[in-house]
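Regression test case RT-17, inverse folding.

Input:
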C-alpha cells in the first residue's frame, strides 16, 4: 500500500514512547531555522522556528502576535507558511498552518528530505548563508525599463531582500544591478527577490563590493 509524504512524515516524527503528555495530531520535531513573519498589519519581524510538523510550528520572536491573528512566516528552506496564531508563550508563539492539501504534501516531502539528509534537527542556518556586501545601494530596473535605486537589506547566492518603495507584482522579473531576479515576496520595507540563476558567492562579493 502506498504511503503519502504527509503520512510518512507523521509516522517518521512519531515519538517512540506512547505515554506522551502532549498528544499533538501531528508530532513535531525540533529544528532551528531563522526567518521572518508578517502580521496582519503588514509589519514584519524576525523569528526563529524551534519545532515544526506538517500541521504547525513553534516560533521564538521579540513580538508576540495575537491569538487568532493570521500571519505569514517565511523561511528559505520551507518557503512561505500561512496560518493562525493558536498560542502565546514567553518569548514566542505557536501557529497552525492553513493551506491546501497540496501545500501540506509539499511541506511533508520537504521535511522528510531534510530529515533524511540530516538537515533536521538543530541546524541554525538558511538554505544559503547571507553574504555581506560592501555596496548596499544598487540599481533596480523594473519591467517598464525604469531604473531606480534601492538598498540591499541582505543577500545570498539565491536572492536578496531590498528596501524600496516599488511594489512589483509577485512573479515579476526585473534586474538588481546586472542580475535577473524574480519578485517572491513583499515586506514592510520593500521586496524579496529570488535570482533567476544561483550565483557564485565570490562573484557577488566582487560585483557588489
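Golden output:
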Amino acid at each position: 500500500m502506498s504511503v503519502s509524504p504527509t503520512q510518512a512524515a507523521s509516522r517518521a516524527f512519531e515519538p517512540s514512547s506512547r505515554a506522551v503528555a502532549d498528544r499533538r495530531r501531528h508530532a513535531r520535531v525540533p529544528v532551528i531555522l531563522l526567518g521572518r513573519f508578517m502580521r496582519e498589519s503588514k509589519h514584519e519581524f524576525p523569528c526563529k522556528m524551534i519545532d515544526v510538523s506538517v500541521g504547525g510550528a513553534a516560533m521564538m520572536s521579540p513580538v508576540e502576535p495575537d491569538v487568532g491573528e493570521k500571519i505569514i512566516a517565511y523561511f528559505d528552506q520551507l518557503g512561505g507558511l500561512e496560518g493562525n496564531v493558536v498560542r502565546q508563550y514567553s518569548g514566542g508563539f505557536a501557529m497552525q498552518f492553513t493551506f491546501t492539501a497540496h501545500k501540506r504534501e509539499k511541506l511533508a516531502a520537504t521535511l522528510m528530505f531534510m530529515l533524511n539528509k540530516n538537515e533536521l534537527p538543530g541546524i541554525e542556518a538558511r538554505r544559503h548563508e547571507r553574504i555581506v556586501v560592501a555596496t548596499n545601494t544598487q540599481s533596480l530596473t523594473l519591467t517598464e525599463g525604469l531604473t531606480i535605486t534601492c538598498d540591499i537589506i541582505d543577500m545570498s547566492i539565491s536572492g536578496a531582500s531590498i528596501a524600496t518603495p516599488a511594489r512589483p507584482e509577485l512573479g515579476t522579473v526585473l534586474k538588481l544591478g546586472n542580475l535577473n531576479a524574480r519578485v517572491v515576496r513583499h515586506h514592510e520595507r520593500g521586496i524579496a527577490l529570488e535570482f533567476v540563476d544561483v550565483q557564485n558567492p565570490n562573484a557577488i562579493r566582487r560585483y557588489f563590493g
